[in-house]
Design goal:
The protein is globular and about 45 Å long. The chain is an alpha/beta fold. It has helices spanning 51-60, 82-87, 105-115, 122-128, 133-136, 147-157, 170-175, 177-189; strands spanning 7-18, 23-28, 34-36, 39-44, 68-75, 89-91, 162-164, 193-198. Helix content is 34%, strand content 24%. The protein starts with 6 loop residues before the first strand and ends with a strand. Helix 3 crosses helix 4 (122-128) and helix 3 packs parallel to helix 6.
Length: 200
C-alpha cells in the first residue's frame, strides 16, 4: 500500500483544522500534490497555506469528518483509503481521541502494550522516549514540555506509523526546545513517518 512507505496526497477542498493552540480554515488544492516520505517531513508555510490541512487530513479524517469538505481526494492513486490511513496515523494534539483523557501516561502506555500484545515493558517505553519518571505518572496535561514525547510514546504503543503534528508557529516550535527536535529524530530512527507543518 505504501510505495517504500511514501505517501502521495492529492486533494481538493476545505478543512477546518484545530489544535489546542490554533484554529484555521485551510484549503487543499489539486495543483499541489504532497509527497511524503519515511522520516521527518517539514512542511513550511502560513497557517492557511494548505500544509496543516494535509497533516490534519491524514490523521483526523476518520475522527472529525464534519471538519472536511472534500471535492476529490486520493492517497497513492487510490491504493489506500483515508480510513485505512487514519488507523496507522496519530494526530499529536490533545483533541486526538487517544489523548482525550485524564489517565496517566503510564496507564495509557500499559493499555497500548496490552491491547496490541507488544513485547515491551512500560518502563522500556519511557526510557525509549526519554520521559522523566515523575512526569510519566501524570496525565498529559501535567507533563509540560515533554507532552509531545509522551504522546509519541502512547502512539508507539498503539502501533501508529504516521505521526502528524498540528501547525506550529516558528516561535512556538522553538518554545519546546530540544524536547521536540530530539523527538523528531527519534521517530525517524524508529522508521516512522513524521509530518510537521511549521511557520516560516
Amino acid at each position: 500500500m505504501f510505495d517504500s512507505f511514501g505517501l502521495n496526497i492529492r486533494a481538493d477542498g476545505y478543512v477546518l483544522c484545530e489544535s489546542k493552540f490554533y484554529q484555521a480554515l485551510d484549503i487543499l488544492n489539486l495543483e499541489n500534490t504532497c509527497s511524503l516520505v519515511k522520516g521527518v517531513n517539514y512542511l513550511e508555510g502560513e497557517i492557511d497555506s494548505g500544509i496543516w490541512a494535509v497533516s490534519y487530513l491524514i490523521s483526523m479524517y476518520a475522527h472529525k469528518p464534519e471538519s472536511f469538505t472534500l471535492f476529490s481526494c486520493s492517497v497513492n492513486n487510490n491504493e489506500l483509503s483515508l480510513e485505512e490511513l487514519s488507523h496507522i496515523s496519530c494526530y499529536m494534539d490533545n483533541i486526538y481521541p487517544l489523548f482525550d483523557t485524564d489517565t496517566t501516561v503510564y496507564d495509557m502506555v500499559c493499555c497500548g502494550i496490552k491491547s496490541n500484545d507488544l513485547s515491551i515493558e512500560a518502563d522500556q517505553v519511557r526510557e525509549l522516549f526519554m520521559i522523566d519518571k515523575e512526569r510519566f505518572n501524570r496525565p498529559l496535561s501535567g507533563v509540560g514540555n515533554e507532552v509531545f514525547k509522551a504522546m509519541a510514546a502512547i502512539g508507539y504503543c498503539y502501533n501508529k506509523k504516521v505521526f502528524c503534528f498540528p501547525w506550529l508557529s516558528k516561535k512556538r516550535f522553538e518554545g519546546f526546545h530540544k524536547h521536540l527536535t530530539w523527538l523528531l529524530d527519534k521517530l525517524a530512527e524508529l522508521d516512522m513517518m513524521v509530518i510537521v507543518p511549521i511557520g516560516r
